[in-house]
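Need residues for this backbone.
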């Protein structure tokens, strides 16, 4: 009978244990790429664990069950994703090899903790074997398979923690049974919001990275935690490294934020200029007159005329705007914003990367969160994503799942919700058909009640963590409750501890039976 690999737990610190062999193998693979300055290959943690697992199982010899028993399992009950064992239909091979290597021992293969320890033990045996360069060369050079069968669209069933009943709490992100894949997170400082975002990213990446449909992400790191050198080990959890960090203080973001209108009608430029002017005016809290907004719109059109429709620059926009002022040497609110954008040199004048074909973390902590520069970075990146989306085909679909290509993650999102942010609305409204989704995180649950857009109505999963201020209107709208039920949910939110959240119980809501919410204890990752 085949061993069941369902719900197998990782060992504590397994990534750190295997980091040395990971670096050794990557150095060998990337040695030939140094001359051509190609992008380095980064092996995923799952791939390294699988390599070591196979290397360990390939070695005959006595197994020491005393050493197996000494292995500590993950304190946070981190589990292997199902595809770890099923990829390339190797689960039968793993099962046969385990039984072969442990045939002299009376092993109960249904004992999940024991099975978990044995798997970790084999990985460590494989690591020790491969750390001998001769063994590593022989192992690597013997791999001749060109198997391209990565499987079909992966099931993005994100294991984020446990319910009160110790049942796994899973978010279904891409089955055809759900309406969309948007996630809203509301959690006050100290609620565990950053850890939750990390869990979501780690689950999205680990369940897709080794398939034909990997999901990349763009994260706006307002607090600088994800891009902090001291937190470098976080990046390996997301199957990436520091090449994903974009720091606009060090160098401009590698794209032009402006649309290319080469060969397009002037009416398209006129519409775009009006939207762009409105957005730029909304980036600052200063009072801006209709005349100033119209003047900026005209300056954008004039700038495009000078480039014959090619993407413009803030310098060109500023010079055209100043030329329309009675006193060009005297700044008004708009010229002041434009000068800040020019001075900070936030963007390149041409595209040097594709934002959805790789993972990126934008370091934002050098700028005031509610200031025009931080808002401009997010606004123009979201605008750029929309331009990319327009060129994409619809995502792949099969009988059970739809493809997800990309997640945009905005922490401190309330700074981008208090004005008519059309690119953000477009991203949410049309992203589903292109396989693009979003995670918005704020401190206060009421921040999603925007007069410009109903974020709650357009989100599959609102996740409510500890709140400083609890909004009865949000509870009423979100959970469809009033009276005693409303007070019950309010009390539950008030009592949430760090790392806990409540989520709408869709089944109870649909049947109008039982509690309309469930509480989840989020897995501890960072």
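Answer:
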């Amino acid at each position: 009978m085949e061993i069941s690999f369902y719900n197998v737990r990782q060992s504590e610190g397994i990534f750190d244990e295997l980091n040395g062999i990971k670096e050794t193998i990557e150095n060998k693979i990337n040695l030939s790429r140094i001359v051509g300055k190609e992008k380095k290959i980064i092996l995923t943690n799952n791939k390294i664990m699988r390599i070591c697992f196979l290397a360990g199982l390939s070695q005959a010899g006595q197994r020491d069950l005393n050493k197996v028993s000494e292995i500590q399992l993950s304190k946070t009950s981190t589990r292997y994703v199902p595809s770890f064992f099923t990829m390339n239909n190797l689960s039968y091979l793993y099962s046969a090899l385990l039984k072969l290597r442990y045939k002299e021992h009376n092993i109960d293969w249904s004992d999940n903790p024991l099975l978990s320890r044995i798997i970790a033990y084999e990985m460590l045996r494989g690591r020790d074997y491969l750390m001998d360069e001769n063994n590593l060369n022989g192992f690597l050079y013997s791999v001749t398979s060109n198997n391209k069968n990565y499987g079909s669209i992966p099931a993005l069933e994100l294991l984020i923690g446990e319910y009160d009943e110790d049942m796994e709490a899973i978010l279904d992100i891409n089955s055809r049974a759900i309406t969309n894949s948007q996630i809203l997170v509301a959690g006050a400082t100290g609620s565990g919001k950053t850890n939750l975002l990390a869990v979501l990213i780690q689950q999205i990446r680990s369940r897709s990275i080794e398939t034909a449909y990997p999901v990349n992400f763009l994260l706006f790191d307002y607090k600088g935690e994800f891009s902090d050198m001291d937190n470098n080990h976080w990046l390996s959890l997301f199957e990436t490294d520091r090449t994903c960090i974009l720091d606009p203080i060090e160098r401009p973001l590698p794209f032009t934020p402006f649309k290319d209108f080469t060969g397009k009608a002037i009416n398209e430029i006129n519409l775009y200029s009006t939207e762009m002017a409105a957005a730029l005016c909304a980036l600052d809290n200063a009072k801006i007159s209709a005349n100033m907004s119209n003047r900026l719109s005209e300056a954008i059109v004039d700038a495009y005329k000078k480039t014959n429709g090619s993407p413009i620059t803030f310098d060109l926009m500023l010079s055209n705007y100043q030329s329309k002022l009675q006193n060009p040497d005297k700044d008004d609110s708009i010229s002041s914003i434009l000068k800040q954008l020019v001075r900070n040199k936030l963007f390149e004048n041409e595209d040097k990367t594709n934002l959805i074909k790789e993972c990126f973390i934008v370091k934002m902590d050098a700028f005031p969160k509610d200031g025009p520069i931080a808002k401009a970075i997010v606004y123009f990146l979201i605008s750029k994503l929309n331009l990319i989306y327009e060129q994409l085909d619809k995502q792949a679909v099969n009988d059970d799942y739809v493809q997800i290509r990309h997640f945009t993650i905005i922490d401190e999102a309330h700074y981008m919700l208090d004005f008519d942010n059309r690119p953000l609305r477009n991203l949410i409204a049309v992203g589903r058909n292109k396989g693009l989704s979003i995670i918005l995180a704020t401190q206060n649950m009421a921040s999603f009640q925007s007069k410009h857009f109903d974020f709650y109505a357009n989100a599959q999963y609102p996740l409510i963590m500890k709140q400083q201020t609890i909004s009865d209107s949000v509870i009423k709208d979100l959970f469809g409750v009033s009276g005693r039920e409303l007070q019950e949910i309010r009390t539950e939110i008030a009592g949430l501890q760090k790392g806990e959240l409540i989520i709408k119980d869709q089944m109870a809501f649909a049947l109008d039976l039982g509690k309309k919410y469930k509480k989840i204890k989020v897995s501890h990752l960072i």
